[in-house]
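Input for the complex:
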Amino acid sequence: MVATLRPKPGPARSYRFPTFTDERLPSGLRLVTAPVSNLPVVTMLVLVDAGSTNDPPGREGVAALTAGLLLEGTPLLSGAEIAEKFERLGTSVESGADWDSAFVKLTTLSARLEDAATQLGQILRQPAFPDREVQRLKAERLAEILQLETEPRGLADEKFSEFLYSPDSRYSKPDEGSTETVSAISRTDVENFFRANYRTGSTTVILAGDVTPESARALVDKAFQNWTLGTAESQKLVATARTGRKSVHIVDKRDAPQSELRVGHVGLPRKVPDFFPTLVMNAVLGGLFGSRINLNLREAHGYTYGASSFYDWRRGPGPFVVSTAVQSDVTAPALHEILLEIERIRTEKISDDELSLARDYLDGVFPIRYETTAAIASALATLVIYDLPADYYDTYRNNIRSVSVDAVLSAAQAHLHPDMLQTIVVGDARAISGSIAELGLGEMQVHGS
Amino acid sequence: MRIPVETFRLDNGLFVTLSEDHTTPIVAVNLWYHVGSANEKAGRTGFAHLFEHMLFQGSAHVGSNEHFELIQRAGGTLNGSTWLERTNYFETVPSNELALALWLEADRMGELLPAMTQEKLDTQRDVVKNERRWSVDNQPYGTMLEKLQELVFPPSHPFQHSLIGSMEDLSAASLDDIAQFFATYYTPDNAVLSIAGDFDSAEARTLIREYFEPISRGKGKPALPPMNLPAVFGAPLREVVQDDVSLPRLFMAFRSPIFGSDQYYAASIASTLLGMRKGSRLHRALVRERQIAADAGAFTLDLAKGSDLLVVDVTARPETPVTQLEEEVEREIDLLHREGVSDEEVRRAQALIETDLIASLQSAGERADRLSMFATYFGRPELINEQVDRYRAVTTSKVNELVAERFGENNRASLLYVPREGVESEKLLAAAVGAG
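Predicted:
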């Protein structure tokens, strides 16, 4: 017989998010350093205020393309030589852009940090944007868009954004651009974007791991000397809903064995005042394995392998979405259950038990999230991107713990809008549209894939 | 840089590895059962994985779904996964919750069956069928692993059949199967328990004794049929799959030395220099220079018995004809086979692997999982500390011996995905070519 009594937890050991320094160097560059030295590893993350929301209209995708091209050549080195130089040091650099920033990052053994950082500085100082590489990366993005046409998950995400936001909103188009906009980008567009956005005043270097603030400062001073001074201007973001009424869009995929479902509406900007109650509310609704939506759709009904809800946090109001894939013949019942759950969390208080599950999880899991230098660097990036206070991580757990049942109900009522839900289904239209029409999800449109 | 490793074995056969590290107040508990899809009987493909789902449905003192709830309430993360040769279960929790994680694992190892019901089995069967639809049937190239297994392993070989299983076999699984599988494979003498992170070794030993010692040893498991295979296929193998995909994609597999063998490290370096990161041969030649591929990579499956597989994975650009994709990949492999690799390439691969190995040890869950892996496959968890040296010891001539033996025409299996014929995909292709 195994012991029948559940063990009780012992006394908790205290944990603190790694302390870090945050300074502005004479060049205007911001430097954030978190010394953590259990293993000889360092992550270096360069963050530039040059994300996709800075894309000029008609050239959507240029931010992502520019970030990708940073590593594809300088006047002296080809892209292949750059890749080789880093890989010989046992590291490789990754670059890209998300909605709010462009990033360049690498993780290296600390003994090779200086070489890697120096190389990185040299390369970022004068990217040459060779035309051949511009054309190649464009072609690779176009191939990726084509792949999406047969990839139901990605297609559902993309169509959801398209039907959620007004066409003049940057968020209505893929962050890396569409076939039309990517095709229109020229080498000059890339160069102009770089000149306008890559400035010291718009750049933060984050170092986390086996490094000291002093050595980090010396390293960054040396690596990033002669960068263009000044700060870039951000564009005004339009992020309005496409429609004020609920509606349903079916993207036809003949004979699909499953329907990919996305149900949601325009959500909230990251700096919303009731961020913590909203976070806990979403954890109860669909943010955990034990959340209402997953237990209902997966464990009670067996409709799906998994179902979740989340707020896609951005500087502007990103989407709120319930996301799942269900077998085709239960598409309508699954949608019905999702709507019920959204309605229920707005009308009834959650139980104390549900509140404690969400709070205890979010509080307790905190130290597990920051085990690696890459995770710590990315947490620091969150502070920089959203301009959160320096004690954000020190107060995080208290903020979670102080969320009440009433605060969750208020957040649900304020931030979930059943009348504005947009429902996107990628599935077999012939088989599912009749039963979906009976759900009253608003006007229905069927689209060819 | 070494991580500490202690081991002991309980009288019932449970092998335990402990690795203390007090940097962060968290601890990882990890259990490997030495059973995977390879152990499934005929007509029950997918059963090992379905069984993994059932392990989260409660046990004698744990309610349905309570395992998840208790760990998440404790502020922990958890999951399980099934592979051809093993099934693992793992949780990372705040260090003061170690006892809970161990107790939950012991309760389901000792007394799973009282909690099993037909209703739970039926629901999880539906969940797994939806997992199959989601990750295999309704996903471009999703059938890759099962098609590859079928192509490269002989019919009676334990690695030949699907891991996720067929819908028909999943439908046939019964509660009797659950009871039999549990009694045969989920026994302490067929498992390894690893703990890594912030804990006290003496306390952990006491808890492990208290919770796991009462569980009885198993009666032994049936031996797997012979798994050894010749070093090469003998003749080229090829299968073309017409599927709902936008771009042609070629998976070319090579029989390669089993995980952990001396030759494995040479194969792993060959795979890295061929297809890991942008400086690799395939990326450089096919994506960057000749621009016929949208993406190119290579990996090994890391099978520890019979024969491993090294797989090259190249996706065509929209304008690249399928025949050209195949020819150009063949050409790269021919070149490798004919001329071998350079010292420079081997050093690049070694450096990349070393950084990845060390960076991965930052996570307690990763350390515990690797300890379990080395203990399960080789009875030697301390191999975790020898990996960097094993890779460093590989010379260019060792890689070239491997390449000469394994990359010839007699050891290539091509699994080629091409867009299903039809107006739709032609239209898409035409549009993309026009746009580029």
